[in-house]
Amino acid sequence: MSIGNAIKFMKNADRDSSFRKSLYKLNGIMEFRKFQIVEDLEFSDAEFEEAFNHLHSECQFAEQADNLFNLKHLFELIICHTK
């Protein structure tokens, strides 16, 4: 598991619509964990939070920060609503 994987996850979710659609289809935390393994993007919740904070500190514009917060909320919905 790594922070780098969490960063890659967020960038893929932001830039790749088919990746995002795959996330929307997940049903349960176990499916999400399997998705992480298949995509080679394993990371913990704490690593996700650290990656988010790192990327947030790099935002130069409000729009970038808004997009990042939207990705965080998507992740939280997947995790919170699938446990």
TrEMBL record:
Domain of life: Bacteria
Protein name per its UniProtKB record: Nif11 domain-containing protein
Species in which this protein is naturally found: Labilibaculum manganireducens
